Amino acid sequence: MEKKSLIRRAALWLFVTIMFCVPSMADAANYRGTVTFQVELLEAEKGKKAESARLWLPYPLSDASQTISEVDIKSDALVSTLGVENDPRSGAVYLAASWKNTTNTPTLTLRFDIDSHYKKIEELREVDAPFPPEVLPYLEGSEALPLDDPMFASLVEKLKTEISILKRARLVYDWVIENTFRDNSIKGCGLGLPIRTLTDMKGAGKCADISSVYLLVARAAGIPTRDVYGLRMASPKTGKITGDFHCWLEFYLPGTGWVPIDPADVRKAMLTEKIELKDAGKWIEFFWGGDDLFRIALNRGSRDMVLSDATKARPLTYFMYPYAEIDGIAKDYFDSENFKYTVTLDLK
After folding, report:
1. DSSP 8-state secondary structure symbol assigned to residue 255
2. pTM for the model
3. Is 190:205 a contact under the CB 8 Å cutoff?
4. What's the pLDDT band for 45 if we cut at 50, 70, 90?
5. Bridge-based pairing state of the strands 294-300 and 225-233
6. N or C: which end of the chain has fewer CB within 10 A?
7. Which helix (H) or strand (E) is 86 found in, with range?
8. CA nearest 211: which of 189, 233, 242, 231?
């Protein structure tokens, strides 16, 4: 499929998802550059012929906090299908490619220009108004987000006595920061399973884990909340940014719209600076209501994604990394030896 056709299809999905954009905010720190995703689907076994190879890659769109342009998609000549698709439930847009009967290493490159202007919201204004219909799905639970888990019953009951959505969201934010901590030994961004994080892991996690705890408690407390999957750089520079995948959050506040927060980065800052909770006030406020870091949103709310026949039985807990299957068997996106992908940034 030619580049112009792909761009036109992606533009159509922009109108579908534009209602989910983050709100207008104060002056931002603007970052610009070219981002390149390079993916190689290494053979499951050296020299073994693969009957099918399939790849799904998040496809970023422009919104109030970023402008995506000059999209360029390239693949090797043996690609069978290549196109831009979307998930009707979450609105997530992604690039899908497939190969048949190959002994080669299928490759794909996605390149785009990014103008990122995330920023702090000047004022969190709350009004007494019902949630818009398009926001209501972000109150729902799932197998991975059991909103009725008895572990949270007393906490949720207490939270619901607070009428203000803003104050309730802040109470959840503070509770999550107090009851989780960052564990750098966990692979990637973690599994994003909140019950596991709080029980088996005793509160330890990475960004997907800590964000999922907020997601579960906030939704159970009646606060529409969604996770944002993408890349985040505190000190952006030209070079490899594969290690900068990150998950953060947005809750919906009537009168303001979607409000970005990042309790996981509070915990990362505390670990990096070796400070206790009592000394973390500046970071707690910095990551509440937006910030000026270089953030690239790849998609929003893409939990429990079904991308293929294989994922129908077990949907992806979250969709942020490239996802691939060789002969119907999923590649481990945490295993860089057998599923090679790199993300690079050319800062402008």
Report:
1. T
2. 0.90
3. yes
4. low
5. antiparallel
6. C
7. strand 79-86
8. 189
Element (DSSP H or E) covering residue 263: helix 263-273
177's CB contacts (< 8 A; 6+ apart) are 263, 266, 267, 277, 280, 284
Cα dihedral value 161, 262, 84, 38, nearest 10: -160
Q: How many C-beta neighbours within 10 Å does residue 126 have?
A: 14
With beta carbons less than 8 A apart as the criterion, state whether 34 and 113 touch: yes
Closest CA to 291 of 224, 228, 348, 347: 228
* Residues of the chain by 3-state class (helix, strand, coil), percent to 5: 30, 35, 40
Residue 41 pLDDT grade (very low, low, confident, very high; cuts 50, 70, 90)? confident
How does pLDDT run across 68-114, given as a tens digit for each residue? 999 999 999 889 999 999 988 888 999 999 999 888 889 999 999 99
Mean pLDDT of all residues in 8-28:
37
Q: Out of 34-48, 67-81, 190-204, 267-281, which region has the weakest mean confidence (pLDDT)?
A: 34-48
- The rounded distance, in Å, linking the Cα atoms of 341 and 40 is 6
Q: At 42, is the pLDDT very low, low, confident or very high (cuts 50, 70, 90)? A: confident
Q: What is the mean pLDDT of residues 218-233?
A: 97
Q: H helices within 111-187, ranges in order?
A: 153-159, 165-179
Dihedral (Cα; 209, 212, 213, 215), 10-degree rounding: 160
Beta strands in 8-65 (DSSP E): 31-40, 50-58
The amino acid at 134: E
Mean pLDDT, the chain, as a whole number? 90
- 298 vs 127: CA distance, rounded Å: 30
Least Cα distance to 215 among 296, 131, 133, 303 occurs for: 303
Strand order across the 323-326 sheet: 79-86, 93-102, 50-58, 323-326, 329-330
